Amino acid sequence: MKPQDFPKEIRPYLQPSHQGRLIYRCLGCQAEFGIEKLAYVCPQCGQVLLIYDLNSDRLKEISGELWQRIFDYRRMLNLDALKGIYRYHEFIGPVIPLEAVIYLGEGHTPIIEANPSLQDKIGVRFYFKNDGQNPSASFKDRGMASALSYINFMLQKGYLSEVLAICASTGDTSAAAALYASYLPGVKSAVLLPHKKVTPQQLSQPLGSGATVFEIPGVFDDCMKIVEALSDNYNVALLNSKNAWRILGQESYSYEIAQDLEYDLSNAVVVLPIGNAGNITAVMSGFLKFYEAGIIDVLPKIVGVQSEHANPVYRYYLEPDENNRKFVPLTVKSSVAQAAMIGNPVSMPRVIHLVKRYNKLAGGSKTFFVEVSEQNIMDCELLANRNGHIACPQGGESLAGLMAAQKRGVVDSQDVAVLDSTAHTIKFAGFQEMYFGQQFPPDYNITPKRDLINTPVYVHPEDLDKVPAPGRPLAGEALDHFVKRVAAEIAGMLELKKV
């Protein structure tokens, strides 16, 4: 739709005009720094950073109702820079000019309502938000679109020249980082992966995008320590969620949910897995921004989910008295939710900070944390996908988390839940194969259920002496006999009735 075709009162707002004043703010000592240099931690105390807009009060000069209309009309704009996460430009990156925005098709992933049968089984109305339908097939593209748009802006301004982008990954981050870096001339990428802890599909992605890939002994937390050492001592651009620009981009997840639910979040529950804690940080931050601007009038419940094999955040919040809480990193065990298999989340300080702020503004507890078993994660993934979804193991973790939250009384039948499926199920096809083949190693603690196992059936009737083969097709009477016999065999197995 062309700008001249929009209502006159909306046209002035279609293309962003808000001039933000973004700064880094330390969560430890509260020191503030300009964004003219890449920064990941506070140079004074070493704590992680968040990005704040010192001009954000100007956003409140527009009514919440008008903001809703602006975003709804922008959805019809045919302008690449505003098609993706920067539809919400004023709330994500108001210093980024539209000509610096990198758009590869990320954002605006659909929320798909579960069918009546599955909703009846679970006992609550819910949707999956399919973030696996992003360009690199995971939610990480939201953060990379923001981080690489910022780098592109810095290159255009002359603040940077050659850039080597680097990250540690459990698979999805590396795929997204390599993809977005490859789009920008002058930007190269390198990724560190835990050896044999990434699926073949995920490993192939950064390789295909031209990144230099290093496999490191250990787990993600070990890779992250090395990447942090590199970013502390060398001129590299860190692309993990320690990078606060990643958090900004991932806030778009919240904005999309608000828009898709017509900005009515009175009974909304958002359920998402916790890995490095960047995503739950972004989700809370995004809803807070919309709430403070009057775009939504209530903060939804947020349920963070962790596997029993990687649950440091859940353990932290087991202590009811926040004054007695102490975060203790842990050694993770093998998990099908590989993207969430992190024992020392980089964004934990952000979680602690934002949970306090979120609950305070909500007027009571609106953030909850649950743990689930590996068995439930895998069973729930398969259950969802047998009912029309494309959930990854992390999506299965979200469904298992919804059920755990119900048992605790956090979620009731009046709520409407949005479950995060962080990546496409195809990335994790190997876990499904292990389940169907009953080949899970003991350390996963998964026993496949017979009613969820599905394997191909080879059909070759014993009385068939001639069958087709590559380069040796059948013809005539032999082909007719083959078709008739195999069709009859399949009809018998399916108990079909003749017409």
Describe the structure.
By secondary structure, the protein is an alpha/beta fold. The chain folds into 3 domains: 111-135 and 261-452, Rossmann fold (3-Layer(aba) Sandwich), CATH 3.40.50; 139-250, Rossmann fold (3-Layer(aba) Sandwich); 457-499, no CATH class. The chain has helices at residues 11-14, 64-74, 89-92, 116-122, 140-157, 172-183, 200-208, 220-233, 244-250, 252-260, 278-292, 312-316, 348-362, 374-385, 393-407, 429-436, 476-494; strands spanning 22-26, 32-34, 49-53, 111-113, 125-130, 163-168, 187-194, 212-216, 237-238, 268-273, 301-307, 367-372, 416-421. A 6-stranded mixed beta sheet has the order 4-5-13-10-11-12, with helices on both faces. It has a 4-stranded parallel beta sheet with strand order 8-7-6-9. Strand 10, helix 11 and strand 11 (301-307) form a beta-alpha-beta unit. Helix 10 (252-260) crosses helix 11, helix 11 packs parallel to helix 13 and helix 14 packs across helix 15. The longest helix is centred in the C-terminal third of the chain and has 19 residues, at 476-494. The radius of gyration is 25 Å and the shape is globular.
Key phrases:
single chain; 499 residues; alpha/beta; Rossmann fold; 3 domains; six-stranded mixed sheet; 17 helices; 14% strand
